[in-house]
Amino acid sequence: MSTRRLTVEISEDSFELLRRSVEQGNYASPDEAVDALLMQLPPDGSDEELERWMNEEVIPAYDEAEAHPEQLLTLDQVREHLAQQREARSKASHAA
Fold first, then answer.
1. 6 within domain boundaries
2. Which of 4, 67, 71, 96 holds its CA 20 to 30 A away from the CA of 23?
């Protein structure tokens, strides 16, 4: 594979993430890490699946939440619900 040299500037956080990823052995070099990430981009520069998900699921869910905020749960309510479910499963598994 032929290569070309490109110089880019990235944020300090991105640099640290890249450095750690190479240090942990996820990639042999920063070049390999960047190349692997670029290969994940769609070939035509668009992401039709992401667009579909945003248009068909995320935006309608957001619009519904905006229209009916009384139906939303607080973080504490979600945590309580999950705790109750865990407890019920735990009791069921101990009873079996």
1. no
2. 4
Cα distance from N-terminal residue to C-terminal residue, the chain: 59
| Total domains, the chain | 1
The whole-angstrom separation of Cα 91 and Cα 84 is: 11
Q: Which residues of the chain have pLDDT under 50?
A: none
Read off the tokens for 55.
């248009």
Q: Supply the pLDDT for residue 44.
A: 75
Joined tokens for residue 86: 């865990």
Is residue 65 within 8 A of residue 73, CB to CB? The reply is: no
Is 63 a member of any domain?
A: yes
d(CA 12, CA 19): 10
Q: In whole angstroms, what is the distance from residue 19 CA to residue 61 CA?
A: 38
